[in-house]
Amino acid sequence: MFKQHTLMNAALALALSACAGQALAAVSAQQAQQLKTTLTPLGAERAGNAAGTIPAWDGGITQAPKGYEPGKHHIDPFAADKPLFTITKANLEQYRGQLTVGQIALFNSYPDSFQMPVYPSRRSGAAPQWVYDNTFKNATSATLLEGGNGFAGAYGGVPFPIPADGVSALWNHVTRYRGTYVVRRASEVPVQRNGSFSLVTSQQEALFNYYRKDGAFTDLKNVLFYYLAFVKSPARLAGGAALVHETLDQIKEPRQAWIYDAGQRRVRRAPNLAYDTPIAASDGLRTADDTDMYNGAPDRYDWKLVGKKEIYIPYNNYKVSSPDVKYADLLKPGHLNPQYTRYELHRVWVVEGTLKPTARHIYSKRVLFLDEDSWGAAVVDQYDGRGELWRVSMAYLKNFYDLPTTWSALDVFHDLQARRYYVQNLDNEETQTVDFAQPVPPDSYFMPSALRLRGTR
Fold first, then answer.
1. Which residues of 234-252 are buried (b: 16+ CB within 10 A; e: fewer)?
2. Does a structural domain hold residue 262?
3. What is the four-CA torsion angle of 56, 59, 62, 64, rounded to 10 degrees?
4. So what's the pLDDT on residue 272?
5. Domain-located, residue 15
6. Is residue 351 one of the residues assigned to a domain?
7. 63 CB-contact burial (10 Å; exposed 0-12 / middle 13-18 / buried 19+)
8. What is the per-residue pLDDT for 123?
9. Dihedral of the CA atoms 327, 329, 334, 336 (nearest 10)?
10. 8/195: higher pLDDT
């Protein structure tokens, strides 16, 4: 049973009432005032839970710990914390009500090794004041486009901080704050049943058009962000690149993508980089719209806002990306080494997507568990065409206090049937990590012609 949250239910009822007769989106000015009183600036409940196991939000982490250098690996601000307890297969029944179906399946699939060390809950989530200010404005101005395939009237913040339906909550995840321009060198890897793996390393760059500080919605021209990645290793793939123009309304204008083939020195369109297209480097373990837990057009699913629930989710995971942890120690058969993971009890929005009868996708249903303090999906349970649980994905969240924002240290995609998993964003063994401090390049930097020029250097 989903725990009833009086505040959430009241806000949801008010939002539904206010939006009657129009696309379920904007709320009244009176409702929006909750973002300055009972709700956090991004729409979470400020108060802790009745049991005292989830604390009240006090602003989160807004300053880096002493000794941190931008672009370097993050210092763990909670390094002194000790686990309160560890969930194992042996005591699973005691905690079943605060786990997702996918998490329970991981315990059943790997009963002798999968564990969840549970730490004190730290509501570390935070964002810059200008993002809070924009979110407050968005609350009364954002409207969904027809069919929920995009939105208008929102910019530079969460579009629907008091959501009235599932697709609005989904857009909050897709457009959550992750800086304006970010550069990262990281690896991705499928991990085989026996724990063997072979890294693919690339330099990734993203310009979040939606979060240009001095911009406006009219400046977007339907482009949410630009993404560029150049493969650095292994040698057989080095020099290859991918460029993406991520559109907001992908029914009006599909995502645009290009691939650079280093061998042929040729740029070509990649028209099918969407929905359930398999991602080559993932060895078939991740679809295009699995990236970032979920991305792209929402049109193939009917989205339902189920409500809120208290779940043990990956949170404040600084150890999994620590330079002191080698990949061979972290990547174990079946799952990450539990010694380096951290779970906390948090409230999540539960959003359920059911495949439309007329649509095609390898997932018949996907259930997203969105962290209330950041709108980032922490866990996603995915079901196959028979309606059986197939995959479970987890984002190992932490506060990137150099912005600040809550984002994923690692994204992990488990295939329960193949008993393999895939990991994105490994950078433990890199000298640098995510860098938000680089100068923002012009849009021309992310054009196909520039991709060809850079690839030939």
1. eeebebbbbbbbbbbbbee
2. no
3. -20
4. 80
5. yes
6. yes
7. exposed
8. 98
9. -80
10. 195
Q: Can you say whether the dihedral through the CA atoms of 94, 99, 101, 103 is positive or negative?
A: negative
- How far is residue 264's CA from residue 38's CA, in Å, rounded to a whole number? 58
- Answer whether residue 212 is part of any domain: no
Among 429, 396, 449, 434, smallest CA distance to 203 is for 434
- SS3 string, the chain, reads CCCCCHHHHHHHHHHHHHCCCCCCCCCCHHHHHHHHCCECCCCCECCCCCCCCCCCCCCCCCCCCCCCCCCCCCCCCCCCCCCCEEECCCCHHHHHHHCCHHHHHHHHHCCCCCCEEECCCCCCCCCCHHHHHHHHHHHHHCEECHHHCCEECCCCCCCCCCCCCHHHHHHHHHCCCCCCEEEEEEEEEEECCCCCECCEEEEEEEECHHHCCCCCHHHCCCEEEEEEEEEEECCCCCCCEEEEEEECCCCCCCCEEEEEECCCCEEEECCCCCCCCECHHHCCCCEHHHCCCCCCCCCCEEEEEEEEEEEEEECCCCHHHCCCCCHHHHEECCEECHHHCCEEEEEEEEEEEEECCCCCCCCCEEEEEEECCCCCEEEEEEECCCCCEEEEEEEEEEEECCCCEEEEEEEEEEECCCCEEEEEEECCCCCCCCECCCCCCCHHHHCHHHHHHHHCC
377 — pLDDT class (breaks 50, 70, 90): very high
**For the chain, how many structural domains are there in total?**
1
More confident residue, 456 or 30: 30
- List residues bridging with 367 in a β-sheet: 352, 381
pLDDT value of residue 452: 74
Residue 18 has pLDDT above 70, yes or no: no
Give the domain extent around 351: 6-176+282-431
